[in-house]
Design a protein that fits this description.
The protein has two domains: 88 residues; 236 residues, BirA Bifunctional Protein, domain 2, CATH 3.30.930. 41% of the residues lie in helices and 20% in strands. It is built from 13 helices and ten strands. A hairpin with a 7-residue loop joins strand 3 and strand 4. The chain binds phenylalanine. The site of phenylalanine (PHE) has 11 residues, from strand 9 and strand 10. It is found in: Cytoplasm.
């Protein structure tokens, strides 16, 4: 009987479910195909008596709609194309590794510098990037008319104020002043941070860069302590056997002052482009803290002495990685940044 067949197939359709596209296709062919069950039933229907047609017609249409609805539902909701692919895939193939990020080369170098000084008992100190004239210049013994205060070097933000003009700090020596103002020696600290100078951007100069400065203040600190500390630092950073030399220099906040060169890390002193064939490259400025600076910060310059130094992280990174163009550091080009993934992590 047609009615029985419909009842039986209705149950089958209701019970049917699959997540596999090929099984769903089988279902479609079986019920909805051109030679499928629904076609057969409709053919049989033509032969039934007129009375039966009246009752069965509706049942039959509902049955057909059920089959179509079930098919649509499964197609849209249950059968994920992917699941078919996964089932068919070669599971022995290697996975699709996902990329982990890389540390920025400047972050790598900064961290290495910090770690070396940590071993010597230096802590990390931080301060604001927006500074007043006092902390960036005056307390550091810069005379009023010193060219470094000039608009060409400093990004001034605001005129006046209790502690002078407001500007973007030009070095992290300002953090040393803040530290000295806040307490009394002994101090043993390094100050990493971003600094700003009003320079046209080129391969060799940028309007901002990064520094690590350091301060060591205690009783009886001498230039010999400065030399030994920086010598140790260089051996740790660039390897044993790296030579250092000090050249007299001038900074308003240190006396005596020096610039420190190291034997070229690229050619080991034989002469190359990096060291301009001199065998030496300059890496930092340093000196004994000027007594005026100590007095400006209410520290007894008769009792205490100490040394300070400052270096550019970009310069150190350049000597480590031979990065010729400073602009690369701030362009965020993934092809550049990717290269430092495995170094120094
Ligand atoms: N502050 C100096 C600069 O930015 C570096 C320096 C720090 C030199 C401490 C000597 C002592 O160039």
């Amino acid at each position: 009987m047609l009615q029985d067949k419909i009842t039986q197939y209705t149950e089958e359709i209701n019970a049917f479910s699959t997540e596999k596209a090929d099984e769903l296709e089988q279902f479609r062919i079986k019920f909805l195909g051109t030679k499928g069950i629904i076609k057969d039933i409709f053919d049989e229907f033509k032969a039934v008596s007129p009375e039966e047609k009246r009752t069965l017609g509706k049942v039959l249409n509902e049955f057909k709609q059920l089959a179509e609805a079930k098919y649509q539902f499964l197609k849209e909701n249950n059968v994920a194309e992917e699941s078919v692919k996964v089932a068919d895939a070669d599971l022995t193939l290697p996975g699709e590794g996902f990329e982990i990020g890389a540390r920025h080369p400047l972050a790598l170098v900064r961290r290495e510098i910090i770690e070396i000084f940590n071993k010597l008992g230096f802590v990390v100190a931080e301060g604001p990037e927006i500074e007043d004239d006092w902390h960036n210049f005056s307390a550091l013994n810069f005379p009023e008319e010193h060219p470094a205060r000039d608009m060409q070097d400093t990004f001034f933000i605001k005129k006046g104020g209790e502690k002078g003009d407001i500007a973007l700090r030009t070095h992290t020596s300002s953090v040393q002043v803040r530290m000295m103002e806040a307490g009394q020696p002994p101090f043993r600290a390094i100050m990493p941070g971003r600094v700003y100078r009003n320079e046209a951007i080129s391969a060799r100069a940028h309007c901002f860069f990064h520094q690590v400065e350091g301060l060591y203040l205690d009783e009886n600190v001498s230039f010999a302590d400065l030399k030994q500390t920086l010598f140790y630092f260089v051996q740790e950073l660039y390897g044993e056997g790296t030579k250092v030399r000090f050249r007299p220099s001038y900074f308003p906040f240190t006396e005596p002052s020096a610039e420190m060169d190291i034997s070229c890390t690229i050619c080991k002193g034989d002469g190359c482009n990096m060291c301009k064939y001199s065998g030496w490259v300059e890496i930092l400025g340093c000196g004994m803290v000027d007594p005026n600076v100590l007095e400006n910060c209410n520290i007894d310059s008769k009792k205490y002495s100490g040394f300070a130094f400052g270096m550019g992280i970009e310069r150190i990174a350049n000597l480590k990685f031979e990065i010729k163009d400073l602009r690369l550091f701030s362009e965020n080009d993934v092809r550049f940044l990717k290269q430092y993934k495995t170094s120094l992590i």
